[in-house]
């Protein structure tokens, strides 16, 4: 298995070589931590007198001692160990969207350690909200800020496969990022498909988990062949002071239950939230007999149908005035229904008299700013029209309209029974 893993690592080295080369000479001004593996040397001098007579300097500088100095010992040395530390921020959470679309949650990971690092990603769905749904994950793409300028638009995205926490490349496929130098940020895009019909204000909590992985090479030392892509582990035992840098896991507490205060485990997680903004529309159409005609011979239909006041217990006999009411209610909490288009064709048994947008009992429809001209636009037949139940005779249409959350819109149509 080591041979197989080594071959995979070699392929990975080839794919990230071009990216890694771009980092050479970059300042990484945001991270001034001393590089892991740096050997720190220190010397001292001791001057003293005996009977006001100066004595030879004592020093541990065996490289460039002062003239006449007595060298005792050697410079003190220690190796700066490797701080393995990263943090993630959900950069567009809470992301609002209508249902039935694809949306992209974005996260930024920053290597806050003092050496090059790689990362694997996994996703968790914690669903902390009251009303929740589960979107379908389409892809995870990462972009390394190779020129360290905070701008990802000039970077090339790489699609990465989700890797379960702790998976070992010896036993299963592991997908990790290219090498990320200290102080450099990584943009992670998670594309999610939202099904249709999800209720307004429902949320999907998508947690991105990043686990520290061994890169192709540390900044100042080479990994043992075959150790690339392995989970980066803390170095156990006593500090060796000098030599290769030892690993110290220093990440903070994320949102996973396993990450408790002070649990530096090389894992950090943060949650991005998608919230649905969807109008919740219901629509009804009712009919009421408004007023009957007087008893006359020959039969004479009502002449005041458009303005008649409703009479209790009126019957829908020929010549009676009836009223249709189309009522639309938006019970959504946040979203406006846009580009409304209501079509109504009256039946052949009636004669159209009038149609109005009711403003007495409902705040109603409003102009759709995305459509040119003043709205809402109610289109009706010109004058009284004998309907035949087909399109083109007694059509009533409402266009260029919106209905905001919590609003009720009504169309009232008066007609005579034939």
Descriptive report:
The longest helix is centred in the first third of the chain and has 20 residues, at 2-21. This protein is mainly beta and 418 residues long. It has three domains: 2-31 and 82-276, Immunoglobulin-like; 39-75, no CATH class; 281-417, Immunoglobulin-like (Sandwich), CATH 2.60.40. Helix content is 5%, strand content 37%. The protein starts with a helix and ends with a strand. It contains one helix and 27 strands. Mean pLDDT is 88; it is low at 1-22. The chain has one helix spanning 2-21, and strands spanning 39-42, 45-46, 49-50, 53-54, 58-59, 70-71, 76-79, 82-84, 86-90, 95-97, 102-111, 118-125, 136-144, 158-159, 185-193, 203-213, 247-249, 267-276, 281-291, 321-330, 337-345, 350-357, 366-367, 377-379, 385-386, 395-403, 408-417. The strands form eight sheets. The chain has a five-stranded antiparallel β-sheet, with no helix packed on it. Strands 19-20-27-22-25 form a five-stranded antiparallel β-sheet, with no helix packed on it. A four-stranded mixed β-sheet has the order 10-18-16-12, with no helix packed on it. It is rod-shaped, with a radius of gyration of 37 Å.
Summarize the topology.
Layout lengths: L1 H20 L17 E4 L2 E2 L2 E2 L2 E2 L3 E2 L10 E2 L4 E4 L2 E3 L1 E5 L4 E3 L4 E10 L6 E8 L10 E9 L13 E2 L25 E9 L9 E11 L33 E3 L17 E10 L4 E11 L29 E10 L6 E9 L4 E8 L8 E2 L9 E3 L5 E2 L8 E9 L4 E10 L1
Parallel strand pairs: 5-6, 8-17, 10-18
Antiparallel strand pairs: 1-7, 2-5, 3-4, 9-11, 11-15, 12-16, 13-14, 13-15, 16-18, 19-20, 20-27, 21-26, 22-25, 22-27, 23-26, 24-26
């Amino acid at each position: 298995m080591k041979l197989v893993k080594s071959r995979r690592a070699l392929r990975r080295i080839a794919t990230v070589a071009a990216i890694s080369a771009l980092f050479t000479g970059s300042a990484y001004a945001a991270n001034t931590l001393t590089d892991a593996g740096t050997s720190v040397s220190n010397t001292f001098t001791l001057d003293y007198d005996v009977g006001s007579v100066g004595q030879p300097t004592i020093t541990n500088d065996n490289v460039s001692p002062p003239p006449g100095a007595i060298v005792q010992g050697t410079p003190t040395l220690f190796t700066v160990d490797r701080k393995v530390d990263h943090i993630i921020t959900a950069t567009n959470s809470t992301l609002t969207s209508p249902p039935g679309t694809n949306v992209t949650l974005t996260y930024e990971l920053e290597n806050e350690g003092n050496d090059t690092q790689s990362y694997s990603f996994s996703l968790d769905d914690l669903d902390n909200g009251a009303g929740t749904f589960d979107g379908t994950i389409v892809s995870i793409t990462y972009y390394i800020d190779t020129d360290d300028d905070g701008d990802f638009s000039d970077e090339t995205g790489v699609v990465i496969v989700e890797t379960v926490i702790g998976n070992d490349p010896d036993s299963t496929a592991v997908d990790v990022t290219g090498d990320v130098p200290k102080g450099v940020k990584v943009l992670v895009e998670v594309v999610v498909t939202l099904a249709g019909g999800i209720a307004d204000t429902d949320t999907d909590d998508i947690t991105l988990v990043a686990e520290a992985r061994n890169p192709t090479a540390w900044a100042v030392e080479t990994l043992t062949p075959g150790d690339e892509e392995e989970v980066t582990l803390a170095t156990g035992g006593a500090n060796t002071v000098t030599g290769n840098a030892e690993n110290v896991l220093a990440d903070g507490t994320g949102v996973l239950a396993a990450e408790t205060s002070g649990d530096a485990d090389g894992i950090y997680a943060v949650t991005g939230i998608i919230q649905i903004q969807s109008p919740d529309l219901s629509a009804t159409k009712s009919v009421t007999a408004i007023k009957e005609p007087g008893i006359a011979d020959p039969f004479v239909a009502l002449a005041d149908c458009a303005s008649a006041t409703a009479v209790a217990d009126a019957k829908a006999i020929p010549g009676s005035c009836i009223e249709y009411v189309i009522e639309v209610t938006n019970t959504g909490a946040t979203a406006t229904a846009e580009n409304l288009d209501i079509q109504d064709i009256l039946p052949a048994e009636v004669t159209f008299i009038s149609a109005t947008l009711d403003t007495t009992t409902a705040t109603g429809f409003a102009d759709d700013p995305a459509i040119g001209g003043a709205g809402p636009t109610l289109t009706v037949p010109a004058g009284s029209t004998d309907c035949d139940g087909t399109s083109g005779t007694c059509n009533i249409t409402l266009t260029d309209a919106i209905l905001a959350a919590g609003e009720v819109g009504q169309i009232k149509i008066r007609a005579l029974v034939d």
